[in-house]
Design brief:
three-stranded antiparallel sheet; mainly beta; 42% strand; 11% helix
Length: 120
């Protein structure tokens, strides 16, 4: 399933644009239609300074990690089409000692949507 969408892309300090993108959903995971998104301090820092602390934008990056929406498609039996959801912006590694102990909130290699913490 191919879907046209718009994304807020930051390229560096004071360099932000809304761009058209195509999402190609292949039936794995969950596809969510974003209805609302928040702007937080890290988004403002990426726009104003091109970085957050030591984490500098080094390639175009989609801003935003505080969003709500509704399920469009999912391979999870726990999610129904049209169900309203809040997105968890974290992606634990699944392999560190905390992830293996079912404590993924403590993951030592956590990644986040809308973050230049790791490259790419």
């Amino acid at each position: 399933m191919k879907i046209q969408t718009q994304s807020c892309m930051v390229n560096g300090k004071r360099d932000v644009a809304v761009i058209a993108q195509e999402v190609n959903y292949q039936g794995q995971g969950t596809l969510v239609k974003i209805r609302r998104g928040g702007i937080c301090g890290s988004d403002l820092h990426y726009f104003q300074e091109g970085k957050v602390g030591n984490f500098q934008v080094r390639q175009p990056m989609v801003l935003g990690h505080e969003a709500i929406g509704e399920v469009v498609a999912s391979d999870s039996p726990q999610l129904a089409i049209g169900q309203k959801v809040a997105l968890n912006p974290s992606k634990p590694c699944g392999q560190c000692k905390y992830c293996l102990a079912q404590q993924s909130n403590q993951c030592v290699d956590m990644r986040f949507f809308g973050s230049a913490m790791y490259f790419p």
